[in-house]
Amino acid sequence: MIVVGGEALIDLVPVAEPPGALLPRPGGGPYNTALALGRLGAPVAFCSRISTDGFGASLLDGLRTAGVDLSLVQRGPEPTTLAVPSLAPDGSAAYGFYVEGTADRLFRLPPELPEGVRALALGTCSLVLEPGASAYEALLRREAGRGLLTLLDPNIRPALIADPAAYRARFLSWLPYIGVLKLSEEDAAWLGGRPADWLAAGPSAVVLTRGAGGLTVWTREGAEHSVPARRVAVADTIGAGDTVNAALLHRLTASAPGPGHGPGHGPGNGPGHGPGPVDWPEVLSYAAAAAALTCTRAGAEPPYAAELSGARPTP
User: Fold this and answer.
1) From edge to edge, which strands make up the β-sheet containing 93-98?
2) How does DSSP assign 191-210, residue by residue?
3) The pLDDT of residue 256 is above 60
4) Positive or negative, the Cα torsion across 124, 129, 130, 131?
5) Which of 104, 153, 187, 242 is catalytic?
6) With contact defined as beta carbons under 8 Å apart, do 210 and 185 qualify?
7) pLDDT tens by residue, 17-26
8) 3-state secondary structure (DSSP) of residue 144
9) Distance of alpha carbon 49 from alpha carbon 103, whole angstroms
10) Which DSSP string corresponds to 65-90?
11) What are residue 206's DSSP bridge partners?
């Protein structure tokens, strides 16, 4: 099983008609990742704190419909976080947030994850907003310590980061506990740094999403692979990066050794580990195909496994 930890929120997505109207859609990077994993047919559980309000109920319904295990979800009476994306002409999105006093930031560290969990994914707002951020960080360190494959998607939202220097330092402190670091070009520019630097700090692989430029991975062994993006008619890019997370995890857990083993586990590499032998061109092509389908749909609507059954590496 894969565990995805982090926020679930409501995106208030602009629609064409009537002018100025906003359509509430389930969202949040970790939520979208868990939803996408469920649709892809991967065994997945969501680890978060979700409001008991109407929005919270709809968020749970979406996960349940996708087959996501909800046994690690905490509940609270506080309101659901709201995000308001603004869309550029190319479909890319910037976000404003309503986060004060919301349920998801009050997440508490759960007991040890169940037996059979092979991977943990974290990222986005949940690693910024306290006190929940410290609880998620503790979860990362604990589970990496017992050898789970870990994936981090920082998915930087500058509007939420009051002290950029402190966040950048904290990001570096996570790297020894990360097996796969996935980030966008915009994230990389904001964080400052190079894949080689991040690899030296701990991860087995760094995956960079480059929008229409495709995907690139660098590995600790010195390999580099790139695949192009799939050409599609873009409705918006909401959830595309989260779908990449899900596709990567779905493929990589098939090659990941059990907890406590595998490359990256040992002195100088941190307690976590990366996947076993990986056919990176195939993995990246699968992720590119999944993200492209998400971009053809308004809001975060990741594809189902059947829609990707023909996905093959791009020559």
Assistant:
1) 22-27, 9-14, 82-87, 93-98
2) H---HHHHHHHS-SEEEEE-
3) no
4) negative
5) 242
6) yes
7) 787 788 898 9
8) helix
9) 6
10) HTT-B-TT-EEESSPPPEEEEEE-TT
11) 181, 218
